[in-house]
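Fold Annotation — chain and its backbone

Encoding — discrete vocabulary of local shapes
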Amino acid sequence: MPIIVIGLSHHTSPVEMRERFAFAEPKIPEALQTLRTNGLADEAVILSTCNRVEIYAATAKTDGRVFEALRQFLVESRGYRGPLEEELYTLGEPQSIEHLFKVACGLDSMVIGETEILGQLKRAYQLALQHQYTGSRLNKAFQRAFHVAKQIRTETNIQRGSVSVGSVAVELAEKIFSALQDRQVMVIGAGDTSEKTARALLSRGARSILVSNRSHQRAEALARELGGRAVRFEEWAKEFEQIDIVISSTAAPHYILDRVKLEPLMKLRRNRPLLLIDTAVPRDIEPEVNFLEHVYLYNIDDLRAIADDYLKLRREEIARCKTIIREKARALLGVERPVGLSSGSRPAFGHE
């Protein structure tokens, strides 16, 4: 039973497209059930992050029509009505296995070598496993992917330098403010990305952290860990008078900050520079706020310019990692090589 992949990522589509296809985590089990009920996959895992939405499926279907069926599933389940040309990629074995390993190792990430994606991939797999949507094929492939990711991080220098969205965001903040000493930071959304970004800001000298989250209990817990202060979610806007940097990464399906809301807040701040870093998909902050004076808004795609600088430093290590990944993928398929689908369109392996 071959393993196939269909999806879109920051390599093939802008954030405006990716946010249209994103799955909220509570909705993923229902989507997995639909895949099985409709006969599209015997086993499946859905990975939905700020940089990618991908379906990993093990299927007994051995003709190319399964890719079109999965494409139709994505379009219909996300209610998408626009054109789709080069945004979606489809992969069959061995490229699908290589792609899975590459994603786990951070080689397909916006910031090459970053570590957050491994945790996100593990959570996606555990969610499918918990609801019994995986079996022997995907279980073995994902477990092997986690092992390869550990080997890559142990045997190569792929993590050298800035290797996370959070650390890249910090470098961006330092370019805006020159230094972070005495800067007041607010984190909206208490997820992993927000926490790691906050810790990076503190390590570079930020004065203190305010944390706001829909779950105030979670905000209080993170604020205690960071030596900061929790702010109730419905009251975070009241703190803007003293804020210099905002890191927003919620799971809200709509903008939590728009131009109409921000404009009067800027007057209260006496128009001091305000840096907004929106790492959420769907986006938390309306792009229109960029037209306000003294406001600097960057979304997840805007961080790519900094990430690309680090990519140049890692070319040799990336080549080593790819060699390891190809060898491990072939070893996995050599044990139980199925007769099945070949690679589809736009194979993501090799994209940087």
